[in-house]
Amino acid sequence: MFRRNSDQALSRRTKVVSVVSVVGIAVGGALAVFAWNRADETTARETFCWNSLSREDVASVGVKGSGYSSQDSQSPADLTLTQLCQVSTRPDATVPTFALKYGGSSSDWPYGTRSNSSNMGQYVQRFPLGNGLNGWAGHNEAAVWLPDACKRAAKSNGNPVQVTLTLGDNQEDTWGAQETRTRMGRVLMKAATTLAGELGCSTEGFTAPGSTPKPPAERRTPLDHACGLAGFSPLRERASTSDVREIVSGDDYRTWSCVLQQPDGLRLAAFSVTTNPQLVGEYARKVSPNKPGDAQWNGESAVADRSPSVLVGCKDSQALIRVSYPDSKEEAEDHRRAAEHLAPQQDLFEGFARAVTKRMGCELPTHG
């Protein structure tokens, strides 16, 4: 039996993105509120958001030919607090064109150390950027972690430093889903690489991916080859394969997931694996394999949330394997429906762990 490591239990919540009036929460606990530039500055700006973006960059996610306004009172070297830069075609705009946030990492990235069953939809909605980056792109938001060396440069108390780009309006109707993600990813990485360079913490591999983040592939779930893994059989024998679809994200197993979902959209389980050194390192640092619940994440205890996970050794790296399953009190009905179609949770975890480690050429840990 594999030991179940687990993370902070998170209740369901509706995420409301508001970039009209923003308070930045600092990594060190301080607060900062920023105002717009004066109206007479809107057409004079050639660089934006701590000089990380050019007018051309801004136009690629905005309206070409417009004047823009942004607030960014500090240089990158002074960005030791969480900051937010809003960019708009005019200072009095109700909703800015986009917002660029710099600061502590978010728990919304499902491959991180605080993933839980309520976040299963994030695997479908947020596509990995690829290129070995710890980042994602969604329908109106994209984010990436800066290299680990930036923790010290940004004085983040050892916490990961994240750059997040949020569009003020949904542009998918204008550009289409793929083009929107391409533009967001390009602008996000331009800002992130510039900031890392200014902070003196950039690395050779921290570059924009050469291709667009691909959307998840949806297909029927085979009985004995689920998620493309030979021998992986998560469905009960009586379950009909027409009742369960699988949605696979990621091009390889560096950051990869497979979500089992019913035709009505109910997500039954999520399986994920990542070899990203930043995520693996944070998991090892925050979650104790011997004393679940003792680890701390920003002051919050990483108690059990019914998401079994394990670190496995691979040839040149480690991999973090996790299974999410709806079995909290709030998800009783989801759990009932999942149990009708899927094997018990521990069997799912062990079956997936065996199949994916074999596919990756890794080795599962042994416990006495």
Which sequence of SSEs, written as H and E, runs from N to C? Answer: EEEEHEEEHEEEHEHHEEEEHEEEEHH
The beta-strand count equals: 19
pLDDT averaged residue by residue:
75
Count up the domains.
2
Category by helix and strand content? alpha+beta
The share of residues in helices is: 10-25%
Q: In angstroms, what is the radius of gyration?
A: 21 Å
Structure overview:
- With 368 residues, this protein is of the alpha+beta class.
- The protein folds into two domains: 177 residues; 144 residues, no CATH class.
- The chain contains eight helices and 19 strands.
- The strands form five sheets. A seven-stranded antiparallel sheet has the order 5-6-7-11-10-9-8. It has a six-stranded antiparallel sheet with strand order 12-13-14-15-19-18, with helices on both faces. Strands 1-2 form a two-stranded antiparallel sheet.
- Strand 8 and strand 9 form a beta hairpin.
